[in-house]
Specification:
The chain has 210 residues and is an alpha/beta fold. An eight-stranded parallel β-barrel has the order 1-2-3-4-5-6-7-8, surrounded by six helices. Helix 1 runs parallel beside helix 2 and helix 7 runs parallel beside helix 9. The chain starts with 8 loop residues before the first strand and ends with a helix.
């Protein structure tokens, strides 16, 4: 997936059971989401594999991309479109070696130092956050808010770093926040709760992101 065609909205899955996870992702796809990240931290390995197989196929049928959170080996096993790596996960280089050049590799960042690191690692995109308080993360990094994103993006520009698509993530619950983030240079948004609770909001978000 090249930057020029990378979707600007990524839905990060929620759900405590395989049924909840599946239903939430299918609702997001039905509503028009074109990029799904399967994130299920508490899953048994066999359940996560089964879910990944089914959702990857569903995404293919919907013409959507499917990536796996944290598990490049699982992404390779089910031929997903890529993987999202946390700061404590395996290296981008190791994931690239396993998945190949054509797959999406995204990386988490919480600060300018993290962003600089991710750029040097040649990620395809950066998930930068959290924007605001979110219940989906147990160990929450310092909140960035609009000012935090603006400062980091300005630092990237000042240092002349190679631009990589930055996705705002974590606690984004208002459409006006998405608009403000775009105005300061964020490429897109990775959303979870707002889409899980109100799948039909995807169409409104996609209009903002055009």
């Amino acid at each position: 997936m090249q930057t020029k065609t990378m979707e600007r909205l990524q839905y990060i899955s929620q759900g405590k059971t395989i049924r909840e996870q599946k239903n939430n992702m299918l609702k997001a796809l039905d509503a028009g989401a074109k990029w799904i990240q399967i994130r299920w931290k508490e899953a048994e390995e066999k359940d996560l594999h089964a879910l990944a197989e089914e959702i990857r196929q569903a995404c293919s049928e919907f013409g959507a991309s499917c990536i796996i959170n944290d598990h490049p080996s699982l992404a390779a096993a089910v031929d997903a479109d890529g993987v999202h790596l946390g700061l404590d996960d395996c290296s981008v280089a190791a994931a690239r070696h396993l998945l190949g050049a054509g797959k999406i590799i995204g990386g988490t960042a919480n600060s300018f130092a993290n962003v600089k690191q991710r750029i040097s690692e040649h990620c395809d995109y950066i998930g930068l956050g959290p924007f605001n308080y979110t219940t989906t993360k147990q160990k929450l990094s310092p909140l960035l808010g609009i000012a935090g994103y603006e400062n980091i993006i300005q630092q990237v520009r000042r240092e002349g770093l190679t631009p990589i698509p930055i996705f705002a993530i974590g606690g984004i619950s208002q459409l006006e926040d998405i608009q403000h983030l775009l105005e300061i240079g964020v490429y897109g948004v990775a959303l979870s709760g707002i889409v899980t609770k109100t799948p039909n909001i995807v169409s409104s978000i996609n209009k903002i992101l055009l």
